[in-house]
């Protein structure tokens, strides 16, 4: 080593002209790039921390304030996996509750509520937890009541859409439940209940509903007290609808609609034509003069083992008509309303809202004037190929409207869907991508400053 150093000249060679200025300039540039890279990494770190921490902090969420009049979007938004939940971001009152999705290759279904005061969409997570059971939307759109189609249940769950809070309503013991109708004043719910003879895994929710439809006894639930009153004479209760005064209801047993008071007294009966059933939830006209009937979905309200298909969870597809039966007197009923998939409610005693399906499978909501038969399209559903990651068309099922809001309903131009905060995992993935990009940028900058050296001449 000493010999090596001994060979070096006593005087080092002169530096190239401007060498020092070049080194200083490049050093300053390297420092700037290093500072930029460091700042970028720190900014990304802050973003990733925000993405990971902030979604986990429960922040107060204010639902949309009720507008002067409720409204319906002129087009419902398509499917999105980024839709938040009622619990995470309460939506306020809703105009619609429905199931949406596809299960052709793998199940991607959502139970959704849509705002009556804005383009708010939320998943009803309590329904997801119970495997999307049958449910009812309150007439004023402020609550959702759900049962459990997986088997016998000991309670119903009431969800407040303004707060996202849940209330358990005990049933006095495990029974199979089929929800039938909600009174216009919001106080009472009619449901059918029965012990289930089958045990173990039921496979699909329809099994519970079908068995209860064949064997269930009518019960009236008072939501103000949580108490249920059984009406043993009304069995098996197939479908029901309250009168506008909330003090009477029509309940179909076989081919007869029994008119029942809240204390269980029978006030009369109406014969339902063969092959037809009382329209669920909204089958009694606002003026009390007619019952609306629709065709059976399949085998109707038979009591044998082969009957009892209620159609819950079945996609809207079967086109039929709405026919009207007088409750009393000899008044001539309105002409039938044709090309209807589902009767959803009444705008007035002479106007109804129905769901229809065209030849391409697209669903729409129409207002129909009885007698004149004139139709006006109110809204349509996006049923394009946006489900199952864009590979399948979306399907619609279990559709309900807030029946008490329909008389004052307006139609709004659908804006950008307000789906609430993104799920935590999505925020985390976004943060990881940002952090990875920042680290890559820093890696691209720093090595280049090391490699570039001023050349000696």
Number of extended strands: 25
Largest sheet, strands/sense/barrel: 7 strands, antiparallel
Terminal CA distance reads 27 Å
**Any low-confidence stretches, pLDDT <50, length ≥5?**
51-60, 200-205
- Kindly provide the name of the CATH class of the largest domain: Mainly Beta
The neighbouring-strand order within the major sheet is: 5-6-7-8-9-10-11
Helix-strand topology string: HHEEEEHEEEEEHEEEEEEEEEEEEEEEEH
Offer a concise description of the structure:
With 457 residues, the chain is of the alpha+beta class. 18% of the residues lie in helices and 33% in strands.
List keywords for this structure.
7-stranded antiparallel β-sheet, Neuraminidase, 2 domains, 457 residues, single chain, 5 helices
Q: What report would you give on this structure?
A:
This is WD40 repeat domain-containing protein. InterPro entries: 6-blade_b-propeller_TolB-like. Keywords: Membrane, Transmembrane, Transmembrane helix. The chain is an alpha+beta fold and about 450 residues long. The protein folds into two domains: about 1-55 and about 430-450, no CATH class; about 60-420, Neuraminidase. Helices cover about 20% and strands about 35% of the residues. The protein has helices at about 1-5, 20-55, 125-130, 205-215, 425-450; strands at about 70-75, 95-100, 110-115, 120-125, 135, 145, 155-160, 165-180, 190-195, 215-220, 225-230, 240, 250-255, 255-260, 265-270, 275-280, 290-295, 320-325, 335-340, 340-350, 350-355, 365-370, 375-380, 395-400, 410. The chain has a seven-stranded antiparallel β-sheet. Strands 4-3-2-24 form a four-stranded antiparallel β-sheet. A hairpin with a 4-residue loop joins strand 10 (about 215-220) and strand 11. Helix 2 (about 20-55) runs antiparallel to helix 5 (about 425-450). The radius of gyration is 32 Å and the shape is elongated. About 40% of the residues are buried. Mean pLDDT is about 85; it is low at about 50-60 and about 200-205.
